[in-house]
Amino acid sequence: MDLALRSSRAAESLIKWLAPLSFTDWSAPRVTTALTQGVVDWGVAHGWRVRREVPSIAGLPGSHPDRPGYLDVVCERLGAPPIAVEIDRTDKQWSSRKLLCEADAGAVAVWVRWGSPRTWIVPHPVALVDIPTTRRRVAGRLLYSRAETDAALAAPAPAPAPAAASRCHATTRKGAPCPINPRPSGLCHVHDPAVQCGARKKNGQRCGNATGGGRCAAHQNSPMYDSAATLL
Question: Is 183 exposed, middle or buried (0-12, 13-18, 19+ CB in 10 A)?
């Protein structure tokens, strides 16, 4: 399948997945965190190995010559090229060049962009996921909103069913109820086994490090037990 077509299909799928996301007067870091988690959940739902802050597949350098550049999210798949995702509010030309290099290296490149105004240029074959938002200044702070109508216009397809509870079903190590919002499973991104490392440790216990899906750094060379879908 043509790489540009793969990128376009991945972006269309991700737009539909993120369509239910709405918020009012959120800070920029909070919006970025929610979008990042949404991308991670999307990849996990497809059965892929999902990692955050992954060194550049194309081997690009970072801000220092001795450090690699990093991608916000990478979805690794068996039998298909990986999906490299960057999530930005401002028109970061470095992200544009980075994704173009990743595409040249054979990755499916997707750029999740939010904020206003929208004046950026997206180079082919990078695909765009546009998240419309509005902003206002409150007490000197810029806050961002995305109404449900904006989400519906972005992707009119039916949204995934919401989580059954407003809080994670698990308890903390101190025995208190977990205060984190749940994933569709009813467990948060820390307690849900689907997004934990899952490798067997030397003591025979299961590794419960929260990774967003896939192995943690200590077990990244361990065999994976899930096969990945290759529809995109």
Answer: buried
